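Lab notebook page, bench 4
Experiment: in silico fold of construct C2
Operator: M.H.
Input chain length: 113 residues
Purpose: comparison with the prior construct
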Amino acid sequence: MSWKLLAVSLSLGLAACTAMADETRPSGRCEINDSKPDVCRMSDTVAADGTHTMVFITGQQRIEFVGRSQTGWWSGKLEGEPAMGREINRSHIMFSTFDLKTTFEWKSSPDVP
């Protein structure tokens, strides 16, 4: 197999994996500012430097956290404001802005359609 053909094959494979990952985002429940938990979808994109961009969509609302994980704790920005987060476990994360004006909680839930 030539290097060009191999490169094209790998490129197409990565594109297919990316599309598949986007379509199969985990489902869960989101809670914004201690409101009633609602069904939401989550996507997590990791940059080469280890920075995560997590987007949560519930109804017409979109919440974004950009930051890094340090052994169960997160630091970054929630909706553009300085924030910290705590990973209760792999499927349960709580975030809050430093000024505590915005809180956000995400729980993965396999029973959510």
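Observations: The mean pLDDT is 80. The two ends are 43 Å apart (CA to CA).
Next step: discuss at group meeting.
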